[in-house]
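Fig. S4 source data, part A: sequence.
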Amino acid sequence: MSELKSRPPSKKTPDLNAFLAGAEEKTAPKKATKKRQYSYPWEDASVRDDVTKVYNLRLSEPYLLKLKYIAEHTPDSMQKFCISIIQEEIDNKINELTK
């Protein structure tokens, strides 16, 4: 037999006992927090930590050679060295700007 019906399904009746029991529960008052009315681009829900984006960095030839020298004489690659320094400085600047 077909499951199609001539009328839409009715809404479930709310469980009044559960509602009343929930009303009697004591909850801690929420602390008033100062919320800003805007969000920063990196706080957007669509931004993912597991996605890596490419950004080209223009260095003069002497600085590129210095960077290569650092990579040859330390365990870090050129990219790993730059990322560690740049991310730290970006966070420092963001903290300074968002105070």
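Fig. S4 source data, part B ends here. The chain is about 40% helix and 0% strand.
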